[in-house]
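Q: Hi! First time doing this. I have a protein sequence and I read that you can turn it into a structure. Is that right? Here it is:
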Amino acid sequence: MPVSPTLLVLAAGLGSRYGGLKQMEAVGPGGATLMDYAVFDAVRAGFGEVVFVIRPEMEAAFADQVLPRFRSHVPVRAVLQRLDVPPGYSVPAQRRKPWGTAHAVLAAASAIAGPMVVVNADDFYGRAAYEALADFLGTPAAGLPPAFALAGFRLSRTVSAAGPVNRAVCQVTAEGWLESVVEVLHIAADQHRGFSGEERGRTRRYAGTELVSMNMWGFTPAVFDHLRDAFRVFLGGTARPSGEQPEGRGTAGRGPHDFEKREFLIPTVVQELIRAGKARVRVLPTDSPWTGITHPEDRPLVEAAIREMVEGGEYPERLWA
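A: Yes, that's right. Below is the predicted 3D structure, encoded as structure tokens:
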């Protein structure tokens, strides 16, 4: 019998460009946040549990304002993403921000024993995307190496009227497996009814049908060992072994300020696993209506999109009534 997946919500981001805790912002009727819609869609798709990854200073607000409204609908808990490092390493003195999305997943290792779907707390992915990943995890692809999954959103459905966006454009094989993820900067509509962006310093045009990653992944617990190994490799160029003095460059050839800023990110780890033949990633195309908040100007656009879906009957006026 298939095991119900866990929804793992990454809610520890600082939201520096937004200027506040956008995870807690009400964007829907009745004060619903994007996290509310994520949990609501996951419950409808058959998920059995929800785990939030948060920073320690958010713990009290989550305990008071977030967790209680879900508990009568689905088992829910929060785990803390601290600036922890393995024995033998020390955290750079000026480091304040969390280590990144891959470390956030690793922070939840003790709380998750089965398949999981990882999402950002400040993105709206839509019910169909949750259903596609739940179906995949319920009947995983046979063979080796282990198979993970990624929800692929059409580029044209992820741009913002508030300004240019950065997107991770997927290169996919004819069989539907992820080959690579390329970061494209400053994507916006162009005069040719398509989109233009900057890829590795060059201007590239896109039709809008290309699949992009919005950080919605389907993993099995096998990912945790890979993340532990990858985090040690990452720390080789970021944090120094305990007792050593900082030098002008890290062991990976990066400058001293990089010690405080580098992030350990899911796409980087996944791409290396694919390159090394340690994992496969199935890209699951979806036409779900993605929306999300990066800048303050995005908030009214998100509110309008959700209002339209509510009025169309896709969501109730009160999610947890």
